[in-house]
Amino acid sequence: MISKRVTDAPVFFITIFFSVCLLFFEYIGVLSLITVGFYFTFVNLVPGTVNFLLIRFLLGPVTVVFILLTYLYSALYFTYLGAYLANAAGLLITVPDTGLYNLYAWPFVYIYLFISLITLLFCFAYNRNELATFQFYLTVIFITGGILFYADSLILFFFSYEAFLLPSFLVLYNFAKTRKAVEAAFLMFFWTQLGAIFLIFNFQYIFFLSGVSTFNELTYVVYSPLEAQFLFWTVLVGFGVKFPIWPFYDWLPKAHVEASTNFSIFLSGVLVKFAFFGFIRYFLALGLDLLSWFVYPILLIGFIDASSKIYYQLDLKKLIAYSTVIEMHWLLFAVLNGSSFFWLAGFAMMISHALVSANFFLLIDSVTRRFKTRLISEVSGIFYVTPNLYFLILVMLIIFLGFPGSLLFVAEFLFFSALLEFSFGFFLLIFFVAYFAVPVCFFRSWFLLLFGLPATYLHAKKTSITDLATFELILISTIVVLLFWFGFSFQFFI
């Protein structure tokens, strides 16, 4: 093994210049391709004709192929350029066979498969106007996600990671029904682009100073303390905007509120988790574990801040959005600590949260379709009107608290067992927040929805409000069964 020392930063401005150029060419070329493909896929140019079918179902996949070839070309170019620079310096470069060699990638694959199936079933049953669009969107995410798992090149890894953003933005923007929805789409776009700038600074800084362009080489690079600090914070901000963590998570609740149910399920269950996978893989390759203790105060502030904001929320979707923020702070703490117990707890928590949040979004959609609102100030007394819906909401609230036998219980047991060994004071603080502050704030809103006095209009319209349909009962109950089955067979994920 050859250890390469990263020198000082005289090329910092060169890094900025090439970063801006790369971002420019990426978004001019790739955005144009995606825009054309999505336009012909989404817009009914000639409805009911053969030409429309050809345009809708052929040009979309062709555009995906062009996008994929563009990414591959750019990544191979930078890979071979990095190999040339390293060979010119007398270093031997060996590019390993790429593949799904990361053991920690498998939980993300499970999450993608489960959540994709749930969203497609929901679209087919209740949101068919978005079904074709969402099928195309899932195809794009599947391709880019596969590249994200397979890529050994840093540039290919960056392109595949950023490729999640543009389709997600176009889906959210295309189905925006209000001005707030458009604002939420652009807020998501610009916040995540802020993270992309920090990431590309990080990649280009390493590339121009050491000639490293692959994960295999990155593990052999040695940094000075100042350089390690710079790389650590650029990585944390670059990926932390998309998790998201404090103070960058403001875009997530707004995106959830304005998005359709299927996109909210996919955003919370897959996109946020894929961003976390990107952080895990790159952070482990950099080997900056010793600096992780700097992040603990930030995680604690974010944990308390998101927990306090749950208390006064009226929108049910925002409750789940802030619970996602809390969960990502837990996950980041578990990974940065480095303990095997924390890692197991993190993966169990990640899978359980994906399923729990999906079920909550399905339940919220059931409430919205029946009562035409999801604000707890306008809906109350579900217990008296829709008993099946009430029962499943109550079951999910119990699971959210960590009911024994569920996967979330396994995750919390492992997490707090490891936290007790890490720091007793930190254990008491997190335990108090997690099992007193968060449940009080979270359950307050749901209990008002379930057990409050029925609103006046509910009495007038009681005959027109129906309980859960058979399909809803089967779909939601299946996820509940999965949570307990995964809890009893957790070794399936180890």
TrEMBL record:
GO cellular component: mitochondrial membrane
Keywords from the UniProt entry: Electron transport, Membrane, Mitochondrion, NAD, Respiratory chain, Transmembrane, Transmembrane helix, Transport, Ubiquinone
Gene name of the encoded protein: NAD4
Subcellular location(s) of the protein: Mitochondrion membrane
Sample GO molecular function, one term: NADH dehydrogenase activity
Top-rank taxon: Eukaryota
Organism expressing this protein natively: Euplotes vannus (Marine ciliate)
Membrane-related topology note: Multi-pass membrane protein
Protein name: NADH-ubiquinone oxidoreductase chain 4
GO biological process terms on file: ATP synthesis coupled electron transport; electron transport coupled proton transport
